[in-house]
C-alpha cells in the first residue's frame, strides 16, 4: 500500500462511527470501489497490474492481460493474494494487436508521464492509463486518467484530471474531457499516436484553464489605491504618532 492510501485508511478508520463500528466487509467494499475509481496499480512479480472496472471480472478478481493471468486482490491491504492463468476464451480475437498496443502504451507512459504511471490494454482493446502524484510535504496531489476504446477502426475515450491543493486552504480542481471518435488504422503505433495527440490537446486546455484561474484569484485580492503604490504603514503610523503628540501640546 502506498503512503497516500495508507494515510487514507488511517483517517477513514479514525473518523468512522464506533456504534456500531463498520465491518471489515464494509471496508473491503469501500476500498474496492476506491481502488477501481483511482485505477491504482499493484506490484505483481516484475510487472504492475492496473485495477479498474474494465478489468474486474468478479469480486476482487482482475485480469492481468499482460501476463495472461487472473489475480485476486486484497482491497484493503492492496496486495495480490493469488494468481491463475486466464482462460484462452478470455484472451480475445485480436491478441497480437492487443500485445503490440500494450507495448506501445507502456513506452508512451514512460516517455510522457511521471514515474510510476501504470497502464493496461484489455482483450476488448480498452486502454487504461493512470498516473498520480502524492506530495504531502508540498501539500498537493494530482491524478491523470485516460480511458480509450479502439473498435471497428475508430478510437474514442475520456480523460479525467484531478488536482488538490491544501496548503493554507483547500482547493480542488476536477475536469473531464470526452475524446470524440476518430478513424485510426489498426496499428499499435498509430493508435498510441492518436492517444498522445488527444492527451496533449487536453493538456493544453488544462494549462490555459490554470492560467485563467490564476488571473481570477488575483482579481479577488485587495486592489492597490489610486496611486498604484503600496501604503507605507510604518511611515503612516509614525505620522499619526507625531500628530497625536502635537495635539497634546496645544
Tell me about this structure.
By secondary structure, this protein is α+β, with helices and mostly antiparallel strands. The mean pLDDT is 84. The chain has 5 helices and 11 strands, in the order H-H-E-E-E-E-E-E-H-E-E-E-E-E-H-H. Helix 3 packs parallel to helix 4. Helices cover 38% and strands 32% of the residues. The strands form 3 sheets. It has a 5-stranded antiparallel sheet with strand order 7-8-9-10-11, covered by helices on one side. Strands 3-4-5-6 form a 4-stranded antiparallel sheet, with no helix packed on it.
- What's the order of the H and E elements? HHEEEEEEHEEEEEHH
Structural class: alpha+beta
Terminal residue distance: 76 Å
Which descriptor suits the 3D outline?
Answer: flat
Oligomeric state of shown chains? single chain
What proportion strand?
25-35%
What is the spatial order of strands in the main beta sheet? 7-8-9-10-11
Q: In percent, how helical is the residue content?
A: 25-40%
Topology:
Layout: H1 3-15, H2 24-38, E1 41-44, E2 47-50, E3 56-58, E4 61-64, E5 69-74, E6 79-85, H3 95-112, E7 118-121, E8 126-135, E9 140-151, E10 154-165, E11 171-183, H4 188-219, H5 233-249
Antiparallel strand pairs: 1-2, 3-4, 4-5, 5-6, 7-8, 8-9, 9-10, 10-11
Helix pairs in contact: 3-4
Amino acid at each position: 500500500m502506498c503512503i497516500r492510501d495508507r494515510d487514507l485508511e488511517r483517517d477513514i478508520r479514525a473518523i468512522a462511527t464506533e456504534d456500531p463500528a463498520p465491518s471489515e466487509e464494509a471496508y473491503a467494499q469501500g476500498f474496492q470501489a476506491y481502488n477501481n475509481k483511482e485505477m491504482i496499480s499493484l506490484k505483481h512479480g516484475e510487472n504492475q497490474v492496473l485495477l479498474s472496472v474494465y478489468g474486474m471480472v468478479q469480486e476482487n478478481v482482475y485480469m492481468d492481460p499482460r501476463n495472461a493471468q487472473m489475480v485476486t486482490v486484497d482491497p484493503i491491504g492492496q496486495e495480490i493474494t493469488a494468481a491463475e492463468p486466464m482462460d484462452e476464451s478470455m484472451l480475445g480475437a485480436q491478441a497480437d494487436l492487443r500485445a503490440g498496443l500494450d507495448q506501445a502504451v507502456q513506452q508512451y507512459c514512460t516517455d510522457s508521464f511521471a514515474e510510476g504511471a501504470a497502464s493496461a490494454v484489455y482483450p476488448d482493446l480498452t486502454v487504461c492509463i493512470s498516473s498520480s502524484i502524492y506530495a504531502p510535504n508540498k501539500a498537493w496531489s494530482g491524478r491523470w486518467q485516460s480511458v480509450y476504446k479502439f473498435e471497428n477502426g475508430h478510437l474514442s475515450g475520456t480523460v479525467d484530471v484531478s488536482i488538490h491543493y491544501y496548503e493554507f486552504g483547500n482547493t480542488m480542481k476536477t475536469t473531464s474531457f470526452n475524446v470524440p471518435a476518430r478513424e485510426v488504422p489498426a496499428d499499435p503505433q498509430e493508435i498510441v499516436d492518436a492517444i498522445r495527440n488527444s492527451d496533449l490537446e487536453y493538456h493544453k486546455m488544462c494549462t490555459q484553464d490554470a492560467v485563467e484561474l490564476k488571473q481570477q484569484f488575483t482579481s479577488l485580492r485587495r486592489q492597490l489605491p489610486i496611486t498604484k503604490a503600496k501604503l507605507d504603514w510604518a511611515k503612516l503610523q509614525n505620522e499619526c504618532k507625531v500628530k497625536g503628540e502635537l495635539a497634546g501640546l496645544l
